[in-house]
């Protein structure tokens, strides 16, 4: 009798946790599918969709400069996926990829022992892990980015944490990114608090802000596939695949957190701190939207 | 003698005028800056502050003693920005979900 009771309780608990666990990403999955569909439809045939999505772009320009139809994986190239002039410039720049020098520096840092003799490999024996970042750490009850994980590794080994955004941290992340190329983004939402973090990031993405009263969404969803003067606006789908990125504007390699902080500032808002809770939640949401997309960082952008 | 008396009267009037206006101007500056700071702190804590509000308050604080009139104008501008940022955030709170692709 007791055995039967234990068995029933165990089965109920396991099936309950499976069912309950599955429910944490229900809304996120619904959002992601709608997000992907929006971009697929928009870039399926921009000439045909011109009135709906590209009313300020002439058919002649679309025929001359737009690349279409786009497949899901094509979006990993950001603005280079759809805008022919950018893609051509990019191909020329990447004949000698400017990210290679900082990437080589990163490889040297990767094997250089800490004071205690350990290396980054001690913390990350498998380097191909970027597809799982950012993740929600259930024990710490917070979103953990790849940059944070690198600094946690340093602190655990008695080293000072690196400054976020650029420099050595971007170089180390570039090493991890290169090892993770081709891996599909696989962000998970393991519990209710993770779902709350996702929701907070989603709101930050869609809610207008700053003295320009614009949102991330307005530039990188609604206006993706359009131009701001000569610059092609990148789609948010696949927006995190190629990080860290060597930006010509920066003259160096920078992290996703740096890019996101800059983007929020561009709305006329106060620039958020890198690795702040809201910015990590934004990264969590945005990366989840690209689940299933193959990583191709580090890369080069204007 | 008359000249001396007249000069003294003018000097006393001028000094008493200064004594009367100075604390009032100082109070105005302090309260304008304090009000702007309070509003900015609220906008900042809700992560909706605009990009230039903080620097306006900083400039107002710097000018508080040397150019109170300008300092008040800057503080008022900062307060206006913080108020607008908060009001804007409240308004967009009602509408942002409509932008999510369905």
Describe the model.
The complex is a heterodimer of chains A (302) and B (102). With 302 residues, chain A is mainly alpha-helical. Chain A has one domain (1-302): Cytochrome c-like domain (Cytochrome Bc1 Complex, Chain D, domain 2, Orthogonal Bundle). In chain A, 48% of the residues lie in helices and 6% in strands. Chain A is built from 13 helices and seven strands. A three-stranded mixed sheet of chain A has the order 6-5-7. In chain A, strands 1-2 form a two-stranded antiparallel ribbon. In chain A, helix 8 (146-156) packs across helix 9 (168-179), helix 10 (192-206) crosses helix 13 and helix 12 (256-265) packs across helix 13 (277-289). Chain B is mainly α and 102 residues long. Chain B has a domain at 24-92. The radius of gyration of chain B is 22 Å and the shape is rod-shaped. Chain B starts with a helix and ends in a 7-residue tail after the last helix. Chain A binds chain B through residues 31, 34-35, 37-38, 202-203, 206-211, 213, 215, 217-218, 221-222, 265, 268-272, 278, and chain B through 44, 47-54, 81, 85, 88-89, 92-93, 96-97, 99-102.
Characterize this entry briefly.
Chain A is built from 13 helices and 7 strands. Chain A has 302 residues and is mostly helical.
Overall pLDDT of chain B = 85
Write the H/E string of chain A, N to C. HHHHHHHEEHHHHEEEEHHE
Name the biggest interface.
A-B, 26 and 21 residues
**How would you describe the oligomerization state of the chains in this entry?**
heterodimer
How many beta-strand elements of chain B? Answer: 0
Can you tag this structure with a few keywords?
heterodimer, A: 302 residues, mainly alpha, three-stranded mixed sheet, 13 helices, 6% strand, globular, B: 102 residues
